[in-house]
User: Fold Peptidase A1 domain-containing protein from Fraxinus pennsylvanica.
Amino acid sequence: MTKSNPYSHVALFMHTQASRSTSLLLALYSAMGKEMGFLLAIFFSFFTSSILARTLPVSSKTAVLDVFAAVQKTQELFLLNSQSVLPSKRSVHDQEPFVSSASSLSFQIHSRLAIRGISYNNYKELTLDRLNRDSIRVKALQTRVDLVSQGLRKADLIPLETELEAEKLEVPVISGTSQGSGEYFCRVGIGHPPSQAYMVLDTGSDVNWVQCAPCADCYQQADPIFDPLSSSSFSQLTCGTQQCRSLDVSECRNNACLYEVSYGDGSYTVGDFVTETITFGDSASVNNIAIGCGHNNEGLFVGAAGLIGLGGGALSFPSQINASSFSYCLVDRDSDSASTLEFDSAIPPYAVTAPLVRNSKLDTYRYVDLTGISVSGDLLPIPPSTFQLNDDGDGGIIVDSGTAVTRLPTEAYNSLRDAFVKGTKNLPSTKGVALFDTCYDLRSMKSVEVPTVSFHFSNGKELALPAKNYLIPVDSSSTFCLAFAPTSSSLGIIGNVQQQGTRVSYDLANSLIGFSSNKC
Assistant:
């Protein structure tokens, strides 16, 4: 689709001015003779072309990466931590609840490090751990798509039992926080009066859940375990309710609905399925939200009390509050700053929008209609069908808050990598790191120009990524790697590294997603 040029009226004006100049030139040429007319022709030609060159937009083929600032941040992260200057879990936990000025229905978002603190010896160790967690999560997401495309349901893979028993969990995967891979947390009030707790944000999950007393088996979390006896709004769901019937895996005990959610690494949560009051900040609240009250939980959930599901299924938080839209902004993962998750707030008018696509076989994931990728302003020779969602539920590109590194089908990744390498021949390359195969040694440079990388959507819109969102440091020694990875799966994923610093808005009523840079 050909995009309209917002500067076309300027071009028309300048063309008109150039035409008038030509008419004047001809008159002068006739009156003053050929020699003087020739000189004037040179002057007017230079004058009009100079104005046009200054006025008409030129698509940038490169972006600037601030190497010094990126490396300094990785060094300061560990320097401040060694001096006990970084905020501890306790100091973040004790902060007053936050209320957004843009929406009364909002949660505050914190990065994983702001909640957990640092337990690594150096930045490379932190990077390798992140990439390991990321690979586990991606496998979980892709396995679920593989199952539905083959016509299998999770319940088909579980033997019928009269009771849910943790030791008999046999579900291969329900998407979510695999091995504590959640990188972003929100502060949520649960019950009445509200008990504050940190919950993982996950666009790849539907079921909300929190650890509950009494615990048969609970992992360590930053906040006290939620006690249902302290809440006047706690209510057990019965087996015949719509909420209970919407669960992928459920059981019935004395007409009480029990739930189970398991993850790709063997982590799980099992307990009562109930309704509770959820409070935003210190003011607005919503009642009767279906949420798992987990009494038997196992896994490395990094101090979070549970999970808020932002998927597209009936049990997700946006679906339960009938939100027409929601948006989040993911701050730098190495930062202790915070942003917001907001509901029922409009997409900013200047946002780059794209169509959201629904998977009829799996309503949890949120697919974007990506049709192409460009490097240095040139579209890569990738067939649009590479990114398309198929009728059987296979393929497509999802936007995921829990995956760090964007995954592309191998054919698309190879084309992107080769074009990027071609445009960075002047940069010293170095060996790959973990899943990254394209890395550079930038220790002698303060800033570098790198090829631009942009996503292109079916509505003709283009999202140009900041250089820091695709060439990232993997250590404190100025090793930077291209933050994309190939996948043999048909499912592609736009990860949170590419989303950092951008407000991602989901207009559910109009099936649109919007990307607004620098709106955290």
In short: The chain has ten helices and 30 strands.
